[in-house]
């Protein structure tokens, strides 16, 4: 008996090749990790073109074309909806041929458009949607199978009536080699003009008030005694443009604001002392996993998802309580043993590196075949 045919998979994400948010990093890595095991095509918004990587023409939400052709206004929706609609239409000739058994997406509007196009045109592929937004379960887009990346969101979905056999839990993966550095901590600090004994607080997250609560982190560091350095590394494409100025007003020379390429984030992990994350919720928190796997102590809000992500009570505090983070950071600055209690390197490496997760993703894809 011949072995079952491998599923032919299309992975689609408009932001791949254009931006470096969590959505895009997950799907870029997923394609690179699984392409050796399955026939795969990556449909993306930018970057190099190959036989397996297709760059589609569409109206990117932050691009110049959408300013001159504001389709979203005609739709009464957001630029992201126009981006996903035009991306889906550009993708349609490729997936209408029947060459793909599974179409895997992570952008909710893209999932909705492709699902309805499939029904209208009677296409045959199976739709796999990765829930990477922490949206209410009632708002999930239609799909054949739902990939959850957090135990907390899976539990919430089941509690809200979604059948458990319609969903699979597989967390996001990370690549340890991406964060390797050739210089040690002292040399990295010297390169950036930071004294060896200065306490460095790192944040790798988009700069915004609503989700990442960057303003809260700034305010908590501003209360600290001494001369700590807050290094904010993150984009403003989903942010508040005034936050860099707000940080400099509150902290003066005690803050740096950057948005380094992904390949340079490992150096920031290596030179920092701690990485607090002020958000009270996350769909996953890939940067937290990457920092923890690099050996950097990570501090998160005390909530079900973060307890599952990094199961160490020493890493959790109430980020909503003014002064709580300030007090903890001052303890960490004064006592290396307190920092060591919050190192989760072994757990993060064992649980989240791609080599450990690849079999689970392979099983997920195979499970969608009849």
- CATH topology-level fold name of the largest domain: Rossmann fold
| Strands ordered across the widest β-sheet | 3-2-1-4-5-6-7
What's the SSE pattern? EHEEHHHEHEEHEHEHEHEHEHEHEHHHH
How large is the count of helical segments?
A: 16
For the report, how would you describe the main beta sheet? 7 strands, parallel
Strand content: 5-15%
N- to C-terminal separation?
17 Å
The domain count comes to 2
Query: In total, how many beta strands?
Result: 13
CATH class of the largest domain: Alpha Beta
CATH architecture call of the largest domain: 3-Layer(aba) Sandwich
**Low-pLDDT segments:** none
**Gross morphology:** globular
The helix fraction, in percent, is 25-40%
GO molecular function: glycosyltransferase activity
Family: Belongs to the glycosyltransferase group 1 family. Glycosyltransferase 4 subfamily.
Keywords: Glycosyltransferase, Transferase
InterPro entries: Glyco_trans_1
